[in-house]
Amino acid sequence: MHEQAMRQKLEQLKLEHRDLDVAINALADSGGHDQLQLARMKRRKLKLKDQIAVIEDYLIPDIIA
User: Fold this and answer.
1) Phi and psi at residue 60, in whole multiples of 5°?
2) Rounded-to-integer distance, Cα 60 and Cα 57, Å
3) Where are the domains of the chain?
4) How open is the CA angle 43-44-47, to the nearest 5 degrees?
C-alpha cells in the first residue's frame, strides 16, 4: 500500500476509534444499556486499535540508538 494511502487509512481508523469510544461511553452511561451490544462495540474498538498499531509501526520505523 502506498504511504499516503496508509496515512489516510490511519486517520480513518483513528476517527472510527474515537467515534466508537464516544458511542461506548454514551451506551454505558444510559440506564438500560445492552451488554451484548456494548461487548461487540468494545471488541470492534480493540480490533481498530490493533490495526492502528500495525500501520503506525510500518509508518514510524524503530530507531536503534
Assistant:
1) -115, 90
2) 5
3) 3-59
4) 90
The pTM of the whole model exceeds 0.90: no
One digit per residue, the tens of pLDDT, for the chain of length 65 reads 688 999 999 999 999 999 999 999 988 888 766 889 999 999 999 999 999 999 999 888 777 65
- Helix (H) or strand (E) holding 5, with range, is helix 3-29
CA distance 34 to 44: 16
What is the number of other CB atoms lying within 10 angstroms of the CB of residue 9? Answer: 14
Please work out, in degrees rounded to the nearest 5, the angle formed at the alpha carbon of residue 9 by the alpha carbons of 26 and 64.
Answer: 105
